[in-house]
Amino acid sequence: MNKKERGILKIEEDFRDTLENQLAKNQSENRKVRIKNIKPVGVATWTDKVNREEIKENVYQVEKEIIEVDEVGEPRTSYQVNFYLGHEPIAAIIGTDEIIYESKFQAFEVDKMEAVKSLLDNMQEMNMEKYSLKNLETKEISEVLTEHFGREVTEKEIEKMLEDMEKGDIEKLKEDKDEGKLSKEQTEKIKVNGIQKADLNKKVDGKETLGKRLDLQEYDSLFVVYSHNIDDITAGAKRDTTTYSLVGVTKNGEAKVLNDEFEIDSSVGNGGNRNQTKIKADSTATRDNSDISVYRRKSNGASIGCENSQGAVNMYFYQKTSEENENIGIQVETSKTPVIPIETREIMNRNKGVYQNDFVQDEIKEHTDVGCNPKDRRDFDGDMDTSSHLHIDEIDVNNYIPNTSITWKEFMSKCGYRGDGSLQVAVKAIQGLGDNVNDEVVEDFIEEKEEEFRTMEDNI
Fold it and tell me: pLDDT tens across 350-377, in order?
């Protein structure tokens, strides 16, 4: 998926989460409404008459499936198409193609009404289909499974899989199963189609297993699945309004949806406003809020996070810091991650003391605050007395670049870095050259920059 598609997908997934929260208030055992698809119609634009400001709002077409069970237990399925301005329903399709607007919207929101009507009168179906939630998610699942299985899993295969799962929905409503428990057939489906898997028996901190830290010792593996498919996995299971959900599988092959045993950490992930400190599998560290979903274990407060990185789902084990009550954690090893050195994993060992998490967070934050994501364990081991490099505020421009005979001042001059912020640009350029910086590497970089300047001058 390209950057534009990823951006649209995230907006649509956030919108779906909001709608499902609204729908959840009216769900019952005998009536279930599911979002089948969301299509972006376009952007409605109008002028606020009070402030004279131009206002823009997304318009979506939302397809819903409604399954109702009558008094004799017989299910009936119907479909609905609504239009939303932002998060507010404003119209519906009645019959084959007639659009009926909500009466109050039509009567009291004249400017908005005209903008929306103009947009709906000129809907471009092809563009809507291309960027629909269903198509984008199918593409994303295809990329994730292609990465997981090491072979191309086509979008047609994914569409067939999802169709087969949807066909079983009505039959599942007739079944009387223990909440959350999966049959052998469903468990095998999880094993094949789960988009990520973590071994709960692996030591996540150099000493204790992921299963022990998450209080899931009865399970052998932890699978990540798409939340909107939970109803397809097991009828009646609690479904969180977040992109992913967790399934535990025991050694003897029994499985259970774990949504009842975790709660969503709303301070991070989709809609969250707090950063998380994380140590990655490649032994680098950063602070970001890129996890899509973060789940906190109800029994002990430990968390597991899921991050989508260019089609691959990364998992992180988190704990809270004592001082800031923020998440700090380490990436979980899966079949698609490099082996995390035991020295790196041991940084998260809880035997290092109750304030180890705070020390690690403080050290990483010291680097990220100046735009540096540390790549050496000494820079995020929680010991302020160990360090692999200096930051900009500690650099004298007349000093030599480490491992070279070239000063920072000379380097900036030859590369054309001048004015405010030039030292920051120079430091980032050197950091981008990797760990083996020497005279030859720096001279080659300078020569490339000088060649760029000559090329620009020739084109003027």
Answer: 888 888 999 999 999 988 887 888 888 8
Lookup result for tokens 């906190």:
296
For 425, the token pair is: 């640009």
CA distances from 324 to 269, 270, 327 (A): 17, 20, 9
Tell me how crowded residue 218 is: count the other CB atoms within 10 A of its CB: 12
More confident residue, 3 or 223: 223
Which pLDDT tens digit goes with each residue over 142-156? Answer: 787 777 667 787 878
The residue written with tokens 């001279």 in the block is 443
What DSSP string runs through 206-253?
A: SSSBHHHHTT-TT-SEEEEEEGGGHHHHSTT----SSSEEEEEE-TTS
Q: How far is the C-alpha of 194 from the C-alpha of 224, rounded, in Å?
A: 6
pLDDT for residue 353? 86
- What's the whole-model pTM score? 0.52
Residue 272 φ then ψ, to 5°: -80, 160
Residue tagged 């809507």 (tokens): 128
Angle (CA) 294 12 49, round 5°: 120
| Tokens standing for residue 375 | 């790549």
Q: How many CA atoms lie within 13 A of 232 on its CB side?
A: 20
Whole-number average pLDDT of the chain: 82
Residue identified by tokens 């471009």 is 124
